Amino acid sequence: MTFSSKYKRLAKSLLHLSLNEEGHIVESKIEEILSSLRSSNHTGLKSLLRYFYIEVRRYEYTYHAVAEIGCKDDPSITNSLVRKLESNIGKNIKLTVIENPQIISGCRIRLKDDVYEDSLQSRLQKLEKSFH
After folding, report:
1. What pLDDT digit, counting tens, does each position of 4-23 carry?
2. Alpha-carbon torsion 82, 83, 87, 88, what sign?
């Protein structure tokens, strides 16, 4: 077994140690793990940290969505989006809402590699393409 495969397995194990009961990453647990790793002064620490970072980012994208909306953030909008996304993917998600004035009446949501968009802007763009 190569060092890189050992580091990858260890990074995945460290990721699982940093999760809460909902399966979300807990920042304080990450900080504890990093502090412990720094004090170990292991020779392959840089490689292990790189794999750990990749695992954390990859895992976070499975439940952290980013929604761009064309208006000010409103808790009722956010709650509605969260409920809809959770019912679609079947697990709890974390949602970050960003105001984007380019989006006219609607939203664009990114979760994992998927982008869901329903806005007047996207409908106008599709209509414009249909004329060409």
Report:
1. 888 899 999 999 999 998 88
2. negative
